[in-house]
């Protein structure tokens, strides 16, 4: 069985790339197709694949300005050639769910989310406060056209597999398609508890982009009077640093072993935005640390309220501050928290996704 793996782009090891890494392990002879690739930005397991890129790769400063090139993505994904393959397995959060496959090949899409920019988060990425009134007005018809293309090409997929029941609902709403659910992998062998006693403070591990709502974490920790450490980088960093005014420590991107040490020492790990799934809460729980998360989206499937953390129904800084105080006072059991995270292991994900591909490829 000849398999092609397709991923939107390769510029770092986030949740989608960690799922792709397991797929590369399960199918070591698979070839990889992606819109663009920053060499050295993903794990050696992925980098060893034959990697085919689109013409997007050759555009100026693509890794910095890829959102400016979104209107070109439909043309790019439709130019890939999969005639040599029996199965196309895409991991998609943007455009690659719409690749064109030959009639005999099965296309299974592991859907991280329907395209956020085009459907329900236009304002966060292209609103007037981001691009100005004229820039936002210019982008609105462009993204509306991209949303129509995204909807109209939904039937190019033979089988949708969602990362959470929350995303399965979005697939049903936007694509009118059913989806099974396979939760993404968490490296519970690497992320595990250690001896350091936790500190009284909050931790955010996140890309610094609008929908992550890191601003809420900054304001909440200020209200609660606890220090905040922020691991990650992104276009919102300068604005968030101004907002924090020295009340939070910004560490930028760190190596995995450094991130693990911050998890282990965190009093509480914060997830203030609505996530499609959310790997960070499970990495934190694998290290035995409780999570305070917004009680919406994927967090309702990864955090057990009052057992492995607290779910906050109100997205305000005041509600998060109260939950942070509560979480820091509670005697959460690290062993119980750890056992919950073990249900999301890499082995479990690999077995489930491999069984699904084998069954559907017959």
Protein model, in words:
The structure is a single chain. By secondary structure, the chain is an alpha/beta fold. The chain has 2 domains: 3-185 and 346-360, Rossmann fold (3-Layer(aba) Sandwich); 202-343, 3-Layer(aba) Sandwich (Rossmann fold). It has 15 helices and 13 strands. Strand 1, helix 1 (15-26) and strand 2 (31-34) form a beta-alpha-beta unit. Helix 1 (15-26) packs across helix 15, helix 8 (214-224) packs across helix 13 (317-329) and helix 11 crosses helix 14. The longest helix is centred in the middle third of the chain and has 25 residues, at 128-152.
Structure, briefly:
This protein is of the alpha/beta class and 362 residues long. The protein has helices spanning 15-26, 44-47, 62-65, 73-77, 122-126, 128-152, 165-175, 214-224, 237-244, 256-265, 279-286, 299-302, 317-329, 334-341, 346-360; strands at 3-7, 31-34, 51-53, 87-92, 106-111, 159-162, 179-181, 202-205, 228-231, 248-252, 268-271, 291-294, 309-312.
Secondary structure elements and pairings:
Layout: E1 3-7, H1 15-26, E2 31-34, H2 44-47, E3 51-53, H3 62-65, H4 73-77, E4 87-92, E5 106-111, H5 122-126, H6 128-152, E6 159-162, H7 165-175, E7 179-181, E8 202-205, H8 214-224, E9 228-231, H9 237-244, E10 248-252, H10 256-265, E11 268-271, H11 279-286, E12 291-294, H12 299-302, E13 309-312, H13 317-329, H14 334-341, H15 346-360
Parallel strand pairs: 1-2, 1-4, 2-3, 4-5, 5-6, 6-7, 8-9, 8-11, 9-10, 11-12, 12-13
């Amino acid at each position: 069985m000849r398999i092609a793996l397709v991923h939107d782009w390769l510029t770092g090891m986030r949740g989608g790339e960690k799922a792709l890494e397991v797929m590369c392990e399960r199918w070591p002879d698979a070839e990889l197709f992606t819109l663009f690739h920053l060499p050295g930005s993903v794990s050696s397991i992925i980098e060893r694949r034959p990697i085919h890129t689109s013409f997007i790769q050759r555009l100026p400063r693509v890794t910095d300005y890829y959102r400016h090139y979104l209107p070109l993505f439909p043309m790019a994904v439709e130019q890939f050639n999969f005639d040599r393959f029996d199965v196309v397995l895409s991991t998609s959060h943007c455009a690659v769910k719409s690749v064109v496959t030959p009639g005999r090949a099965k296309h299974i899409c592991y859907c991280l989310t329907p395209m956020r920019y085009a459907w329900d988060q236009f304002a966060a990425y292209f609103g007037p406060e981001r691009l100005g009134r004229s820039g936002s007005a210019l982008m609105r018809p462009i993204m509306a056209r991209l949303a129509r293309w995204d909807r109209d090409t939904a039937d190019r997929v033979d089988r949708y597999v969602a990362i959470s029941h929350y995303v399965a609902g979005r697939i049903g709403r936007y694509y009118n398609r059913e989806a099974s659910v396979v939760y993404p992998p968490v490296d519970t062998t690497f992320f595990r508890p250690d001896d350091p006693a936790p500190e009284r403070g909050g931790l955010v591990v996140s890309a610094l982009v609008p929908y992550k709502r890191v601003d809420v974490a900054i304001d909440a920790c200020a209200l609660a009077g606890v220090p905040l450490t922020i691991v990650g980088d992104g276009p919102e960093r300068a604005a968030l640093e101004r907002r924090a005014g020295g009340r939070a420590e910004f560490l930028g991107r760190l190596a995995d072993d450094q991130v693990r040490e911050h998890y282990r020492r965190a009093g509480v790990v914060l997830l203030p935005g609505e996530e499609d799934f959310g790997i960070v809460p499970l990495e934190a729980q694998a290290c035995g640390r409780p999570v305070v998360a917004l009680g919406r989206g994927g967090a309702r499937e990864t955090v057990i309220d009052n057992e492995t953390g607290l779910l906050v129904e109100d997205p305000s800084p005041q509600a998060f501050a109260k939950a942070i105080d509560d979480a820091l006072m509670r005697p959460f059991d690290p062993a119980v928290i750890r056992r919950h995270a073990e249900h999301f292991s890499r082995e479990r994900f690999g077995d489930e996704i491999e069984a699904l591909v084998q069954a559907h490829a017959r």
